[in-house]
Design brief:
about 60 residues, 5 strands, about 10% helix
Length: about 60
């Protein structure tokens, strides 16, 4: 689980928009960028080159 205080302050490095935490996938999701940033051992990896591309909802 990510610290709620930290989650409120993190933004997507590409779009500067808020992120949604997907606890099941251990990712921070940027809907605006279509990217999911991994959370490894409780530490968000906020590098665009480490992010996984996600499909937009249909």
């Amino acid at each position: 689980m990510l610290d709620p205080w930290l989650l409120e302050r993190l933004v997507c490095p590409m779009t500067r928009t808020p992120l949604r935490y997907d606890e099941a996938m251990q990712e921070l999701v940027s809907e605006a960028a279509g990217l999911a940033y991994p959370v490894r051992d409780g530490v968000p990896v906020m590098l665009v080159e480490e992010a996984r591309r996600i499909d937009a909802p249909a």
